[in-house]
Amino acid sequence: MGPGRSGGTGGRPAPGDPSFPARTAPRCASAGALDRQVARCGACPRLVEWRESVAAAPRAAFRDEEYWARPVPGFGPEDAALAVVGLAPAAHGGNRTGRMFTGDDAGDVLFAALHRAGLASRPESAHRGDGLVLLGTRVTAPVHCAPPQNRPTPAERDTCRPWLAAELALLPRLRAVVVLGAFGWQAVLPVLADAGYDVPRPRPAFGHGAHHVLGRADGGGELHLLGSYHPSRRNVSTGRLTPAMLLDVLTRAARVSGAGLGADGPAPCPE
Fold this sequence. Notes:
disordered C terminus; 33% helix; 8% strand
């Protein structure tokens, strides 16, 4: 059974209450605390049912594995200068392993590129305990539960939005955000606007290689917003996104944020 919809104490909602993200995320004092609360969330009944039903009927290749089958938190250092924002966990990827982009085709492409850009300690990620370390980078998503057909609804995106808003706000050194795909782009823009960044109107259109520098009305530091096609199996197999295209965006983001290896940002790893 998924998290209950009642039983909160001290005026706090239970994990299954639709208001759980909005009322819980702002209370978190660190990214680690936020991650623990994200993993408890059950605010979207359709997603709870789907993530648990997938775990109850695993693919043959994963029959002997115990699925995570909960919301998948972001991961990476709490002082990350770069955030990479995807779409949602894959049903037999993050929903199985408990770590974003881990154990699926999109993750194979993403982590190889992060490693070449000097942003990850190794080029692959199979499970949570495999030793992968992200360098100055945090990987997250606007929706933390695996959705049917990889398609969250707008309502599910909006219910989950407080987690993303709080996560980005809890990264004090954040200087750049790379968004993988149009869905994530549409989710990130209102978060940044609400956080005080000067998001232009009309809002910047998503596109691979898009790069916008957002100032703040209060005079705070600038934020670089970059777009890339999502490294989904379909995008990669059709050539819409190549490893070189993704590497180019990540290398640029590393350079402008200072994330990764070296004081001036990383150089790509050799072939």
